[in-house]
Design a protein that fits this description.
Elements lengths: L1 H14 L2 H9 L13 H11 L3 H9 L3 H10 L7 H10 L3 H10 L7 H8 L5 H17 L6 H13 L5 H14 L4 H15 L4 H14 L2 H8 L20
């Protein structure tokens, strides 16, 4: 395994560039202590070549390299990811790029996702708390089997966290609110109601979240799309799926 990880890191290093590392920081606000500067497209191509491997994902994560941790999101096997592993990895989050990629490409495929949304939404650490809402947004965008009820309940978590003035948290909260409000007419109505209440709040971060979400949630194009969309029916969950913005 050590030899295989070294080979992967060598491939990443050869594809990295100083310009890309600088752009990560200045354009995207991603600050990673160990980064090669490799494009996401290259990482996805490499992940496809490597295939699914839970042990390899753990070994890549342990290296601490930014690109290796992104690879872990694509290489790991969702059905083998434990709740304890999710907590360990979340504690290592040190930028939004790793946080969002893990939530968007791996964690939302696990059976522990909803529980972690609830738990992490109460954490103080900036990127663990962001992960709660990045994970909620990912569920809203990807889960085609869950009905409206859990998403309606999640609005209380969004409202409670909207007053957090930290940049990466409030943007994650807005993303979650917008994603929930895109699922159905009923959820859009509820999300718009919450967004309007937040937009009128005396609290500045809450106002920002509300106004940011309203622009998307009240767009005529979205409302037209929702009106023709078939409602999602609550159904037994399927086995964890394979994995195939956002600051």
């Amino acid at each position: 395994m050590a030899e295989r990880v070294r080979e992967v890191l060598d491939r990443l290093e050869r594809r990295g560039s100083r310009r890309a590392r600088e752009e990560m920081r200045t354009r995207y606000g991603i600050v990673a202590p160990k980064a090669y500067g490799v494009s996401m497209g290259t990482i996805q191509q490499l992940a496809k070549a490597l295939g699914r491997d839970h042990a390899l994902a753990a070994a890549l994560w342990a290296t601490g390299w930014y690109e290796a941790r992104l690879l872990a999101a694509y290489v790991d096997q969702p059905e083998r990811v434990t709740a304890a592993q999710m907590d360990r990895w979340a504690r290592d989050f040190d930028n939004w790029g790793v946080c969002d990629t893990l939530c968007f490409c791996l964690f939302d495929r696990t059976p522990h996702a909803w529980r972690k949304v609830e738990q992490w939404s109460r954490r103080r650490d900036e990127f663990v708390k962001r992960a709660a809402f990045a994970l909620l947004a990912s569920l809203a965008l990807h889960d085609k089997r869950t009905g409206d009820a859990p998403f309606l309940r999640s609005l209380a978590l969004i409202e409670r966290a909207a007053s957090d003035d930290r940049n990466f948290v409030k943007k994650g909260v807005s993303w979650a609110l917008r994603a929930v409000g895109r699922r159905s007419v009923a959820l859009n109505d509820a999300a718009v109601h919450l967004a309007r209440r937040l937009a009128e709040s005396p609290d500045a971060p809450s106002r920002w979240v509300g106004k940011d979400a309203l622009r998307e949630l009240t767009s005529p194009k979205l409302r037209k799309s929702l009106a023709t969309r078939r409602p999602v029916s609550a159904a037994p969950k399927a086995p964890a799926r394979s994995a195939s913005r956002r600051a």
